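Below is our example:
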Amino acid sequence: MSAKNPVLDLFSSGLKVVNLGLESFGETLAGLGVPVVQVDWRPPAGGDTAMIAALDSIANARVDVEAANAEAVERILKSKPVLVGIGTARDVVPGMRPNLVLHAGPPVTWDRMCGPMRGAVIGGLIYEGLAEDRAEAEKLAASGKIDFEPCHHHSSVGPMAGVMTSRMPVWIIENETYGNRAYATLNEGLGKVLRYGAFSGEVLDRLRWMETDLAPILSKALKLHGPLDMRSIIAQVLQMGDEGHNRNRAGTSIVIRELAPHLVMLDESREKISKVLSFMNANDHFFLNLTMPSAKSAVDAAAGIEGSTVITTMARNGTDFGIRISGLGDRWFTGPAGIVEGLYLPGFKAEDAAPDIGDSVITETSGIGGFAMAAAPAIVKFVGGTPADAIAFTEKMYEITLAESEVYKIPVLDFRGTPTAIDLRLVVEKGIMPVINTGIAHREPGIGMVGAGLVKPPENCFKDALAAFAEKYSKAGGTR
């Protein structure tokens, strides 16, 4: 009797196929009645040989990347942001000075600024009394007498254009666990506001009222109340339908509830107290300027860890999208800011939109915002899509993060923790970009908000960062 032939046996017995990659191969066999299991396999980094080499180099790095990342994750998860007060930027923001204008995103010069960024700078200079009108402000901005630096370089964050000047009142958030602080201006509301590039008389009048009335009154109420535990409040709002970036109705409501009993006890006129409460009540985004510095205080605690691939900054200035990596310090890696796809306010269309802008993506960087969209299905009415999309976005983000929050939970996902600590390696290896939801500013200065939606970051900044990380930490690499 002849010996069995394994090859012949393979084709004479019941054939079962596992198909990798292109589905068309499996579909052909399935059409012939052959059982097929389709596996969605793709080569790492989309087959980019340079990126595969960088990933291999990091896997054999001269530092313990896994230990470094474990430390970064722990610092983010253990961070406890607390609202401790309201101050004036020149008094509390590190490095603030009269001729300094802080802005959102990575560094950018006046000549490269987009329309809404320029509009916000113009408004900021007029607000500070450094210019009388638009023409004078534009001349001053181009003169070299005004310094422009990112909010992120001064422990701060700013939504949209993110312009902060020395007189502006700011929230003071302290990371109670690690002692670092973060700052943000108070939120003006939606529509025709400075952060969207508007600078008309009504915009400036509102800013002045926020400086003379709103901030001092809220500061007094906060002193009576005592520090607000932002970690606890953010955990609550995720249970109530917010995600901490573009939906903040629950968060704003909680802040009002916390401060209202103390507001009515102040030695202020009923008219002033009523205006403060009405302003917050009419501004669902009031809470955004609290989630942003809370998020920054958490990820800043994980910055500067030797050998860590955790992303600690994502930010946009309307011209560039930039990221920073824990193990690469303050170095920025940038790519072109994208165009947001979403829903537009009546009378506006895609042609009116400025490129992606703002520091508010610090919420996604920390694990809320777009990463927690499953907690806020109603947000799709603001940014587009369906509730199922919101859940799918969050589920996808677990693939590029290293941990799940121990505090921030998502009810619809059986109270699973939000995806936390973005790993640069996973972003490049899997080709999955962080999901970001955001507002849309008009491309021209002076107009304001025109819509909201979702935006995809440029891939090159992540690839450039990975290559730089591999170069720095390779066994034969330098120390740059």
